[in-house]
Design brief:
82% helix, flat, 7 helices
């Protein structure tokens, strides 16, 4: 968590957008590693694919179409307002964690209601021999569909950005070709 905090602070301070893109990918990879430690491998895979992979490609594709440096603007009042919004949001998120059971707590509600049902009935209800697969494919079907939709949307965005850059490059080459023939003709 300290590494994620350090990377997050670096992202907030650096004005070089390429470095920010790389640090965002690093932040997502650290988050994916944290999910693996918490035994949430499916979430870790999604974080690595979407957060570190596709999002980094999207940011780099956007940088190819824009400038590399952040334009400074706003002022002290905008920075203070933004900090207050982030601080309040963070405080609300931390407050929301106070009601959660401790990590690995054997008397947590999930271990007494949901998990036994998955273990005992998933084979006959879903028909898949693997419990994890039955949970992801059936019980959490809407979650998984949401994850697939996010990945599909990100991939579509990447393809749109790459297609736009290719069209722009082809247009520039065509313009150069036309101006070259005009110079030769004159």
């Amino acid at each position: 968590m300290l590494m994620m905090g350090a990377v997050g602070l670096a992202i907030a301070r650096i004005r070089d957008l390429f470095a920010v893109s790389m640090l965002s990918g690093i932040f997502s990879l650290i988050g994916a590693a944290a999910y693996v430690v918490l035994d949430a491998v499916d979430v870790a895979f999604t974080e690595a694919a979407v957060g570190a992979g596709i999002s980094t490609v999207l940011m780099l594709g956007t940088l190819a179409l824009t400038t590399r440096k952040e334009k400074m603007g706003g002022g002290k009042s905008k920075s203070t307002a933004a900090f207050l919004v982030v601080a309040v949001t963070g405080a609300v998120l931390v407050y929301g964690t106070f009601d959660m059971p401790r990590y690995g707590d054997k008397i947590a509600a999930i271990h007494h209601h949901v998990v036994p049902r998955y273990i005992e009935k998933s084979g006959e209800e879903v028909g898949m021999p693997n419990i994890v697969t039955s949970v992801l494919a059936s019980y959490r079907g809407y979650d998984t569909l949401g994850e697939v939709f996010v990945i599909f949307t990100a991939a579509t965005g990447v393809l749109a950005i790459l297609g736009r850059a290719r069209r722009r490059r082809e247009d520039e080459e065509a313009d150069e070709g036309r101006s070259g023939t005009k110079e030769i003709a004159s």
